[in-house]
Amino acid sequence: MSMALDKRSVVAVIGSGAMGSGIAQVAAIAGHTVKLFDTRPEAVDNAIAGIVKALARLVEKGRMGAAEADLARERVHAMRALDDAKDAALVVEAVVEDLDVKRTLFAKLEEVVVPDCILATNTSSISVTAIGAQLKRPERLVGMHFFNPVPLMALVEVISGLATDKAVADTVYATAAAWGKNPVHAKSTPGFIVNRVARPYYAEALRLLLEQAADPATIDAVMRDCGGFRMGPFELMDLIGHDVNYSVTQSVFNAYYGDPRFAPSIVQQELVNAGFLGRKTGRGFYRYGDDAAIPQAQAEAAQPCPAQVTLVGTHPLFDAIKARLHDASIPVATADGAVPAFHAGGAIVLTDGRSATQRALDERNPNTIVFDLLLDPAKATRIALARADQCSDAAYNAAVGLFQHAGFTVTRLDDVPGMAVMRTVAMLANEALDAVSQGVCSVAAVDIAMQKGVNYPRGPLAWADAIGLRHVLTVLANLGAAYGEDRYRVSPLLRRKLAANPDGARIHA
Ligand code: NAI
């Protein structure tokens, strides 16, 4: 176990923009003397003024003592020339995202710093291996990838390039932990962990919109209220900015040689073409501004509770919904059966990646209704349904009434394979499994990264375990069959886990 850098050691931060100023603030609060540099001296002055304000706010909110804040402030210094980095034990680079600029900067730094100084880059998309390649000692260059805003986001991806010394990565990991962050190790690969594994969160939503499953407000509400995500994909893309989000998607897609998994969406490209970049331009998927109407998610009108309900089979999700029906004094008969379903005029089943229409045909029951995955079926406020094209109004309305009387707002999605939450979570887990099987990171790291870097309510691999790996595989295979696209190919690691242990396979030990 490597030790963190000594608190008395000097940290130099090069580039004093959004990220550099946040990194400086965190290092100074952790006790380091921090030296900030920028080619634009006014950027350093702005960064220091911003840190002073941020410290004052922490004191105001009672999160930090006034004396402690004064000391942190006194530890931050402007650096007017790179030579002043000569006493640094760690240099963190957060300049523009440009390989040549970063290479030139590190070459200069190598001439200035002491032999055991660690050189770290905050790049979010450039190969750490490539940044270090021309250094005399590439083994001391490592990625230290913070998330925006740095003081609030706990994740730090510690990225090892091909030449990075393990001890250097371990020291940066321990140092990030000592700064109160949640570090994870990852190998330098396109998108590292978060920017790779998160792609399906946007991509599947854009596909759902392209296929007219529902409007953005409805899909966002389903992802929040059924999936437990803090923000829906469309409001999140509007916040990130479509120019930024589209360019990250393109860069990951190109870096993986056009793997259809990562294909950008023409829906998003059109927003970029239009200059509808999201919140910052007042319009993206939504409109912003004082007079902008807030679009409401679709919700079905009230229906009576069906007279008779039978639960076939047992399954944690169905059992939790049955408990809600019980609490609402709605009697539910039970029966044995292999495929869990509520029967209340039609068959109400959990999506397995087939459309309801396909499933109605396969199972010879026209009255088939599918529902979407719920993160917490005991507490969820909304449930999403899709009906087979062959389904009668009476059978569908009985399903709507059933869930309404269990306390759900019922939202209808058009009948696309895999619905919204299920197909997104299955694809997130699939990507996470590929990252693990390709040695990018550990199982634990990917789950921490997605929870701490993008606030997912559960790590995708823990979530896959909770759904059941067999079901995740079925969803992906059915999506693959429905679309005939390589995009939905199943991670070999998922197949392997299930082959080794068909009934009890889990990703987490
Ligand atoms: P920014 O544009 O806010 O700040 C960059 C600063 O670097 C500017 O003040 C600029 O004057 C300065 N600079 C440019 N060339 C320089 C050089 N050769 N030497 C010294 N200073 C120089 O950019 P931001 O957002 O802070 O990003 C910085 C780095 O962090 C980039 O590599 C970016 O990809 C990465 N990053 C950004 C995140 C974000 O959400 N903004 C998240 C994670 C990483």
TrEMBL record:
Keywords: Oxidoreductase
Entry keyword annotation includes Lyase: no
Segments forming domain 3-hydroxybutyryl-CoA dehydrogenase reduced Rossmann-fold: 348-417
Domain 3-hydroxyacyl-CoA dehydrogenase C-terminal: 191-288, 418-501
UniProt domain 3-hydroxyacyl-CoA dehydrogenase NAD binding: residue ranges: 11-188
Pfam families per UniProt: 3HCDH, 3HCDH_N, 3HCDH_RFF
InterPro entries: 3-OHacyl-CoA_DH_NAD-bd, 3-OHacyl-CoA_DH_PaaH, 3HC_DH_C, 3HCDH_RFF, 6-PGluconate_DH-like_C_sf, NAD(P)-bd_dom_sf
SUPFAM superfamilies named among the record's database cross-references: 6-phosphogluconate dehydrogenase C-terminal domain-like, NAD(P)-binding Rossmann-fold domains
Coiled-coil boundaries: none
Designated name of the protein: 3-hydroxyacyl-CoA dehydrogenase PaaC
